[in-house]
């Protein structure tokens, strides 16, 4: 399930995409109905992962670190919540056996979780902020 923090991060990133210029955290929070302090935490995570740049001064605020067509939904979600996989044994980026796993090789659940991860990752990696802001839903075939 998508966390509220990730949902807010996507809304903030889409706001910056549509605006095409810098915006303050207060401006984003008001426009997207996100609690200001919570948004500051989210923007800090996005900045540390290199997805936004914070500018100081009278014309300061936040801007996307690169073109919106080059930032995928998957990048934003991974920056906030970590791996896309439902279980650590199905993760490509942070693989580890599940705590109660008897055998990764013989697990009947893992192949299904990997298939779900692959389909989810393909859709999220194949959807850019620019596409979403334009209302485009990329073609998808599993």
Helix content: 40-55%
**Integer-rounded radius of gyration:** 17 Å
What strand line-up does the widest sheet have? Answer: 1-2
Could you give the order of the helices and strands? HHHEEHHH
Strand content: 5-15%
Low-confidence stretches: none
Quaternary structure classification: single chain
Largest sheet: 2 strands, antiparallel
Tell me the total number of β-strands.
Answer: 2
Number of helices: 6
The span between the termini is 20 Å
Q: What shape does the CA trace take? A: elongated
Class derived from helix and strand content: mainly alpha
Mean of all residue-level pLDDT scores: 91
Write the layout of secondary structure elements.
Layout: H1 4-19, H2 25-32, H3 36-48, E1 52-55, E2 61-64, H4 73-81, H5 110-125, H6 129-133
Antiparallel strand pairs: 1-2
Helix pairs in contact: 1-2, 1-3, 1-4, 2-3
Give structural notes.
The chain is mainly alpha-helical and about 140 residues long. The protein contains 6 helices and 2 strands. The chain has a two-stranded antiparallel sheet with strand order 1-2. The longest helix has 16 residues, at about 5-20.
